[in-house]
Structure formats: C-alpha cells, structure tokens
Amino acid sequence: MSSLDDQFHSAALDDDLTATLDARGLRAARVGDDDQEGTHRWQDAVARGFLGGEPTEAQYTESFARNGYRRKIGVYDAAGVQTDVPVATFASWGTELTLPGGSAVPMCAVSAVTVAPTHRRRGILSTLMRGELRTAVSLGFPIAGLTVSESGIYGRFGFAPAVTATSWEISTRRTGWIGPVAPGRIDYITREQGRDAATDLYERIRLATPGEITMPGGHWDRTFGTRADAEKADKLRVVQYRSPAGEVEGVAVYSITEDDDDWAASTATVSRVVAGTDAAYAGLWRFLLTLDLVGTVRASELSVDEPLWWMIDNKRAARITSRDHHYLRVLDVPATLAARSYDVEDVIALEVTDALGIADGTFVLTAGETPGVDVVDDPPLGVPLVRLGVEELSAMLLGAVSPVTLARAGRVETDDPHRIARVFAATTPPRLSFWY
Q: What is the pTM of this model?
C-alpha cells in the first residue's frame, strides 16, 4: 500500500455519516482487519446482497486472509434479530487508475455495496456513499471508481460509465484465421505458473491501457483457481506464449464445457488473455480459436476495439455484445485533468456542476504536452466553454464517449463540441479487463 492508501484504510468514519445513521437507530462501524468473526458476519451480508449462498468455511478463511487491504464498513441494527450481521455493507481501498498517455492517478475503488431488502428506502446507501466520498476527498484522492451490478444506482452520486466492456461468442466452425502467425510457441503450464506469469505481465502492461487499475489482492488467485475456495479449479487450463528468444509474453486461461449431443461442438470459455506483445496476442487467440473438439469460444471483459475483429475472416461468426462496465467519478477536477495527456494543444473552459458539491466550479484547461488546469471565477473571453455535470466529465475523461455525442444527447452545452472532442480524444480505447 502507498501512504495514501494506508491513510484511507485506517481513517475514521465521516462524522456526518455516523451521525445520520445514528439518528435513524443504526450504527455504522469499520470491521477491524483482525476481527475474524466480524469479518465473517460482514461476508454473510455481502453474500446475501449479491444473491449468493451461505459462505463455506473455506470461503470464510480465504476472504479473511486476502481482503485485509479493503476498508470494510458495516451498518448494524440493534433492534434486529441477527444484530451481528450488517444490514448494509461497503468496501473501498486505494488503487491506481491508468489515464490516456500512460500516467496513473490514485483512485478510491468501491465494492461490496449492499443494503438488505429489509432496510431499503432508508437512505443508507446514500449516507454511506456520500460519507466515504468525503473521506476520499479529504485525503486527496482525485477520482473514485467502481464496477456495478445495477447501473441505474450510481449516477446520482456523480459516477458515469467511462469504460464499456464487450462479450464475444465466436462460432469457430464458421470462421478462419487471417491474422498473423506468431513466431513463438505455445505451451501448457500449471495454474500456479500462469498466475505468476500473469501477475508480472499485467504490471508491465497496465499503464498502456486507459481504464485499467492495479490488480486487487486475491484476484489473480481467483482467476487461476489457485485459492482454497476456488470452484471448479480443475476445469481450468492455462497456456503461455514464449517469444523465439524464450521470453514469456502472454498467458491465457480457459475451461471447456462439453456438448453431450455433439462432442466436437464443445464450448471454450476464456477467463483471461494477458498479452504483453502483439505476437503473444495473435498467438494465444489463434490457439484458442483452433482448439480441437471446440465449436464455440466465449470471452468477456474485452475492449470495444479488439484487434481480434480483424484477425478472423468471417466477422458474422462473432456475436459481440456491449455493456457498461467501469464507472468513474471525478473528485478533483484540476488534479485529474492535469494528470492525463492530450494529443492537441488548446485552451478550453469547463463549467462543472456537482450535486454533491465536491467537484463543481469553473476551470480552464490548457491541453498539450504539459497540461495545466486553473480554477477561475468566470470563463475567460475567447475561450470555448463547455457546461456539463461531473457525471458527463467522468464519462468522457478516458475518451470512451465523444463530447459531440453528449452534446447531441443534451448532456453537455457548448458552442463548439468538435473542438472539445478533439481535446478529450484518446487513441487507445479504454478497457478494464476484470470486475472488482
């Protein structure tokens, strides 16, 4: 953890948060990192909130051992029957978000947000979110982010979909490979070897893709089934790509579901492809699309602009669906905008509104090789102005949506949306390759 992450992890709960819930007969408290029983009951509430079954002993043990990096909050109702089980949960931690240009900024990641059905419509979620965002702001986080199960919830807090994910289903019998033939070799490796290789590769490549964040603790073990509570880990197969020089440049993990009616029409579900070079990307995907006895290949959390599209000869053999995935929320406009790079030199003004009063104001962005942001009382004359909410600013931060589109949708106001769009354009489509 960085010093900022440490400070956030151990920070006291926001006074307004605790006072508001106390006035409603509820108690908010941090679940201590050493409180094993409290963590188990918190996990019970999270599992219930996401429609899961009761956690097993292995899941209790693994969760307690691996989730110490999370700042866990529970809301408790002393008038209930199970007073030790939270009626609401909230987790957050410090991470890094990659911005266009390869820079990274600290980000407050949010997860495990639940409210029991018995306690809905009492403002619990709003109180938790507002309080934790205030804490993040007070410590200097310029942005917050989350992946969501219910996308209609978080807009009122200023979050917006900044990264779209695609899911692919490819009929391998209907298409052929027209991409490059990679010069390296593919080998099967153990799940442990795959986990270690992916960990190293991802750390080297995540700064090349806007939208990616530091991998949270325990996620690689979940992906590769190398934790004691992993389900169906025996079904996972792992391969690596090595360059002619012997360097490991890519890893893929997949599983097979057999077709009982046609054994040559099995389905391969690709859990993850981590490719550090174009050759590794081509080599791994060619391998996956030519697996014996497989008629369908499925993969998710892919980019909206995958090179794979141009590597198969029959585009209609691929059924691609898009879904909102990574939501961002700008907390500090000057710090966030000054941290990313811009491909054009220009000066624009942004008049930002924020219902929570966190990031509103008028700002002048000087885009270029060395960007800068000034806070002003009024937009200067002769500089194009865009009026927008913090939600819209968060949506276009990584270049996933054009200000031209937002203007046509009535979400931003500006006399020159094309000029604003050129400033915020990004050459690499943003991606987040996992859920958290």
A: 0.96
